[in-house]
Design brief:
single chain; five-stranded mixed sheet; binds zinc ion; 288 residues; alpha/beta
Amino acid sequence: MKVETNPWGRWREIGDRVFVRRNRTLDVNAGLILGDERCLVIDTRSSEREGRELYRAVRSITPLPYVVTLTHSHFDHCFGTSVFAEAQPDCEIWAHERCRAELAASGVQQRMEIAGWLRESGEEVLADELDAVTVTLPNRTVNAADVSLDLGGRQVRLHHPGRGHTDNDLIVDVPDADVTFLGDLVEQGAPPSFDHAYPLDWPDTLTRLLDQVGRVVVPGHGDTVDAAFVARQRSEIAQVAELARKLPPQLEDAELEWQANRLAVGGAAGFIALKRAQEHLAELAQLQ
Ligand SMILES: [Zn+2]
């Protein structure tokens, strides 16, 4: 008899004292890494209600003081941050410097857009939750240089590998457990998300990562994967970049949609990806 196990809402230890928790909303992942003196929480979910739930889940595992890391500036990864900041007032909140800049410049705008979109989809309760979010800015930033965090008897590395899903994706490496958290640079169970992406740069960013990732790779959404999965998703995104470079500039949307249907990432994601790539190609052409 096949036993169905619900993959959501529980911690799974995927390496020595390294945990991942898949959350049902958007199938988004949160991570938890334990040191001897403090722990690291990776991403805080989409709202303060969800942040509180995650906070309680962290406390079900450890009483240690925590550090928070945000993988990028999208609401589903960082809108629960205020819960962690309030519960521990000296809390370090790490992110890429452009993640901080993006949240400072347009975090409130993002909140309004997502709440509006939820309301239009009939999700009144979730929309109200979004409206109630206090956008909390990171207070520690990473730029071009790697950052090593000492959790007590264990070091984790934060670094930005280049533009991809956004311009502010941050990777968390746990070398002694052979685990890497990639944020939305990789997605399992859904196509990569291109709304704020750099499809022309993304394949090279993943290429640079391929020989660095651990045995276990945690995507921003979905089940854990491995380097072979990252390589396959890299090929799919490279296919987008190649097609975008071949197409004539300023194609009509109908033509782009038709072209997108040929892509392995699927027509819907592919259309957004081709639009973004065409915008970037037009910018590059203007610079020449
Ligand atoms: Zn994202």
